[in-house]
Amino acid sequence: MPVNPGGVRAAFVTVVALLFAEAGALIAVLVWLVVDLLVLQPSSFATAVALVVLVAIAAAWVSAIAVASVRRAPWSRAAAIVWQVLQLSIAVGAFQGLFARPDLGWLLLIPAITVIGLLLWPPVRELYARPEDATAG
Protein backbone atom coordinates (compact mmCIF):
# COMPACT_ATOMS: atom_id res chain seq x y z
CA MET A 1 0.00 0.00 0.00
CA PRO A 2 1.62 3.30 -1.09
CA VAL A 3 2.16 6.01 1.50
CA ASN A 4 0.56 9.39 0.90
CA PRO A 5 3.42 11.95 0.65
CA GLY A 6 1.09 14.61 2.04
CA GLY A 7 0.49 12.48 5.11
CA VAL A 8 4.21 12.00 5.66
CA ARG A 9 4.77 15.75 5.29
CA ALA A 10 1.96 16.47 7.75
CA ALA A 11 3.47 14.01 10.22
CA PHE A 12 6.90 15.62 9.86
CA VAL A 13 5.48 19.12 10.30
CA THR A 14 3.58 17.92 13.39
CA VAL A 15 6.77 16.52 14.91
CA VAL A 16 8.70 19.74 14.24
CA ALA A 17 5.85 21.93 15.53
CA LEU A 18 5.54 19.93 18.74
CA LEU A 19 9.30 20.05 19.30
CA PHE A 20 9.30 23.83 18.89
CA ALA A 21 6.26 24.11 21.19
CA GLU A 22 8.07 22.05 23.83
CA ALA A 23 11.18 24.22 23.45
CA GLY A 24 9.04 27.34 23.82
CA ALA A 25 7.35 25.92 26.92
CA LEU A 26 10.73 25.16 28.48
CA ILE A 27 11.93 28.69 27.73
CA ALA A 28 8.76 30.08 29.35
CA VAL A 29 9.33 27.91 32.44
CA LEU A 30 12.94 29.09 32.55
CA VAL A 31 11.88 32.75 32.48
CA TRP A 32 9.29 32.06 35.18
CA LEU A 33 11.87 30.33 37.40
CA VAL A 34 14.41 33.14 36.97
CA VAL A 35 11.78 35.76 37.87
CA ASP A 36 10.75 33.70 40.90
CA LEU A 37 14.38 33.37 41.95
CA LEU A 38 14.88 37.14 41.74
CA VAL A 39 11.58 38.14 43.35
CA LEU A 40 10.82 35.46 45.94
CA GLN A 41 12.91 34.04 48.76
CA PRO A 42 13.52 30.35 48.00
CA SER A 43 13.71 27.92 50.93
CA SER A 44 16.94 26.61 49.40
CA PHE A 45 18.87 28.99 47.19
CA ALA A 46 21.20 26.24 45.94
CA THR A 47 18.28 24.03 44.91
CA ALA A 48 16.56 26.94 43.15
CA VAL A 49 19.72 27.79 41.20
CA ALA A 50 20.25 24.12 40.31
CA LEU A 51 16.69 23.91 38.99
CA VAL A 52 17.21 27.04 36.87
CA VAL A 53 20.43 25.60 35.44
CA LEU A 54 18.76 22.24 34.73
CA VAL A 55 15.81 23.86 32.95
CA ALA A 56 18.19 26.11 30.97
CA ILE A 57 20.12 23.06 29.77
CA ALA A 58 16.86 21.29 28.85
CA ALA A 59 15.57 24.35 26.99
CA ALA A 60 18.80 24.66 25.02
CA TRP A 61 18.83 20.94 24.23
CA VAL A 62 15.21 20.74 23.07
CA SER A 63 15.70 23.91 21.00
CA ALA A 64 18.74 22.31 19.34
CA ILE A 65 16.73 19.15 18.67
CA ALA A 66 13.91 21.18 17.10
CA VAL A 67 16.29 23.13 14.83
CA ALA A 68 18.14 19.95 13.84
CA SER A 69 14.83 18.23 13.17
CA VAL A 70 13.92 20.93 10.65
CA ARG A 71 17.20 20.09 8.91
CA ARG A 72 16.37 16.35 9.26
CA ALA A 73 19.66 15.64 11.00
CA PRO A 74 19.79 11.89 11.67
CA TRP A 75 20.79 12.36 15.34
CA SER A 76 17.78 14.58 16.04
CA ARG A 77 15.31 11.71 15.71
CA ALA A 78 16.95 9.68 18.47
CA ALA A 79 17.42 12.76 20.64
CA ALA A 80 13.75 13.69 20.20
CA ILE A 81 12.66 10.18 21.20
CA VAL A 82 14.86 10.33 24.32
CA TRP A 83 13.36 13.71 25.26
CA GLN A 84 9.84 12.39 24.75
CA VAL A 85 10.55 9.41 27.02
CA LEU A 86 11.80 11.80 29.72
CA GLN A 87 8.71 13.95 29.21
CA LEU A 88 6.54 10.84 29.42
CA SER A 89 8.07 9.94 32.80
CA ILE A 90 7.37 13.45 34.11
CA ALA A 91 3.79 13.16 32.84
CA VAL A 92 3.28 9.88 34.69
CA GLY A 93 4.57 11.54 37.86
CA ALA A 94 2.13 14.40 37.39
CA PHE A 95 -0.80 11.98 37.64
CA GLN A 96 0.09 10.70 41.11
CA GLY A 97 1.11 11.81 44.55
CA LEU A 98 -0.03 14.38 47.05
CA PHE A 99 0.34 17.27 44.62
CA ALA A 100 -0.97 15.46 41.51
CA ARG A 101 -1.72 17.66 38.51
CA PRO A 102 -3.53 15.54 35.91
CA ASP A 103 -4.04 18.61 33.71
CA LEU A 104 -0.28 19.06 33.38
CA GLY A 105 0.13 15.31 33.02
CA TRP A 106 -2.11 15.27 29.95
CA LEU A 107 -0.34 18.34 28.51
CA LEU A 108 2.93 16.42 28.69
CA LEU A 109 1.66 12.94 27.84
CA ILE A 110 -0.27 13.62 24.63
CA PRO A 111 2.55 15.39 22.73
CA ALA A 112 5.12 12.85 23.93
CA ILE A 113 3.11 9.87 22.69
CA THR A 114 2.30 11.68 19.44
CA VAL A 115 5.93 12.53 18.68
CA ILE A 116 7.20 9.06 19.59
CA GLY A 117 4.55 7.43 17.42
CA LEU A 118 5.25 9.68 14.44
CA LEU A 119 9.03 9.30 14.72
CA LEU A 120 8.69 5.52 14.79
CA TRP A 121 6.44 5.49 11.69
CA PRO A 122 8.68 4.10 8.88
CA PRO A 123 8.01 6.89 6.31
CA VAL A 124 8.94 9.58 8.86
CA ARG A 125 11.90 7.51 10.08
CA GLU A 126 13.18 7.45 6.48
CA LEU A 127 13.10 11.26 6.34
CA TYR A 128 15.77 11.32 9.05
CA ALA A 129 17.98 8.67 7.42
CA ARG A 130 21.36 9.57 5.97
CA PRO A 131 21.33 9.49 2.15
CA GLU A 132 23.73 6.54 2.08
CA ASP A 133 21.48 4.62 4.51
CA ALA A 134 18.35 5.29 2.44
CA THR A 135 19.90 3.92 -0.76
CA ALA A 136 21.43 0.87 0.93
CA GLY A 137 18.10 -0.42 2.27
Tally the helices: 6
User: What is the 3D form?
Assistant: elongated
Query: In this structure, how is the largest beta sheet organized?
Result: none
What is the total tally of β strands? 0
Low-pLDDT runs:
none
What radius of gyration results from the CA coordinates?
18 Å
What is the element string, with H for helices and E for strands? HHHHHH
The overall pLDDT, averaged over residues, is 93
Our measurement of the CA-to-CA distance between the termini, rounded to an integer number of angstroms, reads: 18 Å
Kindly name the structural category: mainly alpha
What share of residues are in beta strands? under 5%
Which range best describes the helical content: under 10%, 10-25%, 25-40%, 40-55%, 55-70% or over 70%?
Answer: over 70%
Give your account of this protein's structure:
With 137 residues, the chain is mainly alpha-helical. Helix content is 82%, strand content 0%. α2 (45-70) crosses α3 (74-94). The longest helix is centred in the N-terminal third of the chain and has 35 residues, at 5-39. The two termini are 18 Å apart.
What's the helix and strand layout?
Layout: H1 5-39, H2 45-70, H3 74-94, H4 102-120, H5 122-127, H6 131-136
Helix pairs in contact: 1-2, 1-4, 2-3, 3-4
